[in-house]
Write the structure tokens for this entry.
Amino acid sequence: MIDLYYWPDIPGRGEYVRLVLEAGGLKYRDVVRLPEAEGGGMPAMVAFLEGRKGYPIPFAPPFIVDDGILVSQTALCCAHVAAQCGLAPEAEADRAFALSVAVTTADFAAEAHDTHHPISVSLYYEDQKPEAMRRAEDFRNNRIPKFLAWYENLIENNPTDSGWLVGDRMTYADLGLFHTCRGLAYAFPNAMGEASQAAPKVQELCRTIAKLPKVIAYQGSDRALRFSTDGLFRRYPELDPASGGQ
Ligand SMILES: N[C@@H](CCC(=O)N[C@@H](CS)C(=O)NCC(=O)O)C(=O)O
């Protein structure tokens, strides 16, 4: 049984790990969302962050505990669980590159986060709005297109011609891209609508994943949390004007 620790009310970065667990059909506990009487709730997570559990101390959630091993950092958590359910490549070179892709996706997600918190995570969005407007403009006009073009290039140049980012089958790297595109479509519907037109293979990859029975069942369940104006991907219409804002 794998224990996932993450904030209880937002999809956030925890969603990347949850999606691999769900798509891979692995048994897990979303510990902080369990009642305290069952060992869940915030105290369970805080005990790890404060080093009271006898494990190495993670800097921030998400982290997982699996059979006595603690892993933190979203991409590493995903790689760890993917290896247990056929969602990591087998060849060593592909395994290494899938992790490279997942870490790059974590960078992309961090840039999406920084559009609403460009100065500090300790300040409210409302206290850094002019900077957020500038940061979001660059993110929409330069960064989204650059990242999407890279993913498109990976799919196009995958020697197996599988339609996936790495190797001949779906991996956690694809699931990370899928979730990032969903998050961006929520937060930046206008910018993503335009940028996606130049990335048809990325769109196809996302459509394929959205149709997987395990993904459909999960997204319709109460295990999946909805996007909101908390967390990583936030919808602030002023950061995504219809014109593209140039
Ligand atoms: N690079 C880390 C970032 C982790 C992170 O920023 N977690 C957020 C929630 S999504 C958090 O709780 N941060 C607390 C902090 O940075 O003080 C990862 O990809 O897992």
